[in-house]
Write a structure and sequence with these properties.
Strand content: 15-25%
Oligomer: single chain
Bound molecules: nicotinamide-adenine-dinucleotide, 2'deoxy-thymidine-5'-diphospho-alpha-D-glucose
Structural class: alpha/beta
CATH superfamily of the domain at 5-191 and 223-251 and 282-303: NAD(P)-binding Rossmann-like Domain
CATH class of the domain at 5-191 and 223-251 and 282-303: Alpha Beta
Number of strands: 13
CATH architecture of the domain at 5-191 and 223-251 and 282-303: 3-Layer(aba) Sandwich
Largest sheet: 7 strands, parallel
């Protein structure tokens, strides 16, 4: 039987890595080709368990490298491409917006061009709820739907919105068979410890201060990463071409409550919490309305936050070498630069 080939870009990152594991576990008739530039956020240790799997191939490549991407398409002739590759951290986009435009916008264009040139059955863009901007804290009745206007705040979200518009333009103009998912904040295993949840776990374990931006009242809508992977899998199977699907599980939490919960789970004191200068342009609240993916595709999240956060804390306790290699490496310089004078 010929196997279907899926190129997964950014598969050495947090969600892409979880997606690679999900797909290889679930399907034996798919070949997964992971294309990743291994930036500071890419980690081959995440893919170590599948490196020898005959249905898996890893290729170190930058999505902005047009000739490299075309060569890979020529070799692999993929049926499907799922694009996770991105610069993903809002704080870094405030420090250095250029690389966000390069990878997130121009890299996406290279992938779309490759799909046009060599043909594809599906191009799926992994996008974010941040393209909708933010919602006020005092309007809990408001949610992002797929028709909410794009209204971005950070260079990161602007670059993701730019990519989404290109993807939709390639569908309308060139009839490229695309889908887009816009998901809320993910958490779970292999999450890079510059993001809220893994950063707070790592700092608490080291008895280091936990830097909470502003008043800590900003709200994020958290989804366990495996639920996001299942949503993308379902969109690839049954999603309608040209459509956008919001993904989220109605799990809104204030940052400060998450931080307190982590401290409690680790038996650490709240005195470790330090309120620091707010993020510039900090989005107040995200909240996804997942009605479309639920009614059209039958998707619902399976992991409740109370269980997901316990599993996540346990994963970080059981997999110290994975994140300790990160926090002692290049990330240590970044951490000093970002928080040095705040803590
Ligand atoms: P991540 O930063 O953990 O991983 C990104 C991966 O992309 C890394 O492996 C990195 O090496 C790779 N990469 C970066 N630039 C590249 C380039 N030029 N060429 C090839 N590979 C490159 O990110 P993540 O949190 O896993 O997010 C994955 C995707 O999901 C992103 O597109 C992000 O916008 C989107 N998203 C993330 C969340 C979240 O909560 N983390 C929520 C919604 C959507
Ligand atoms: O909503 C989806 C988005 O979620 C994704 O598109 C992004 O790629 C992903 O990084 C995430 O963006 P956020 O900015 O919401 O995630 P982050 O973990 O950086 O921050 C979560 C909240 O915690 C936010 O309100 C800022 C706050 N925060 C973050 C850090 C790193 C702190 O208070 N202190 C911190 O040190």
């Amino acid at each position: 039987m010929t196997k279907k080939t899926i190129i997964v870009t950014g598969g050495a990152g947090f969600i892409g890595g979880n997606f690679v594991h999900h797909m290889l576990k679930k399907y034996s008739d798919y070949r997964i080709v992971c294309l990743d530039a291994l930036t500071y956020a890419g980690n081959l240790e995440t893919l170590e368990p599948v490196m020898k799997n005959p249905n898996f191939r890893f290729v170190k490549l930058d999505i902005t490298d047009r000739s490299g991407v075309y060569k890979l398409f020529e070799e692999e002739r993929p049926e499907v491409l799922v694009n996770f590759a991105a610069e993903s951290h809002v704080d870094r986009s405030i420090e250095n917006p250029g690389v966000f435009v390069s990878t997130n916008v121009m890299g996406t264009q290279v992938l779309l061009d490759a799909c046009r040139k060599f043909g594809i059955l599906r191009y799926h863009q992994v996008s974010t709820d941040e393209v909708y901007g933010d919602l006020p804290l005092d309007r809990p009745d408001l949610f992002f739907t797929e028709t909410t206007p794009l209204h971005t705040s950070s260079p990161y979200s602007a670059s993701k919105a730019g990519a989404d518009l290109l993807v939709l333009a390639y569908h309308r103009t060139f009839k490229l068979p695309v889908t887009i998912s816009r998901c809320s904040n993910n958490y779970g295993p292999y999450h890079f410890p510059e993001k809220l949840i893994p950063l707070m776990i790592a700092n608490a374990l080291a008895d280091k201060p936990l830097p909470v931006y502003g008043d800590g009242m900003n709200v994020r809508d958290w989804l366990y990463v495996e639920d996001h992977c299942r949503a993308i899998d379902l969109i690839l199977e049954k999603g309608r071409i040209g459509e956008v699907y919001n993904v989220g599980g109605h799990n809104e939490m204030h940052n400060i409550d998450i931080v307190k919960l982590i401290l409690k789970a680790l038996g650490k004191p709240e005195s470790l919490i330090h309120f620091v200068k707010d993020r510039a342009g900090h989005d107040r609240r995200y909240a996804i309305d997942p009605a479309k993916i639920h009614s059209e595709l039958g998707w619902l999240p399976e992991t409740k936050f109370a269980d997901g956060i316990q599993k996540t804390v346990k994963w970080y306790l059981d997999n110290k070498p994975w994140w300790e290699h990160i926090v002692t490496g290049e990330y240590a310089d970044y951490y000093k630069k970002m928080y040095g004078d705040k803590l």
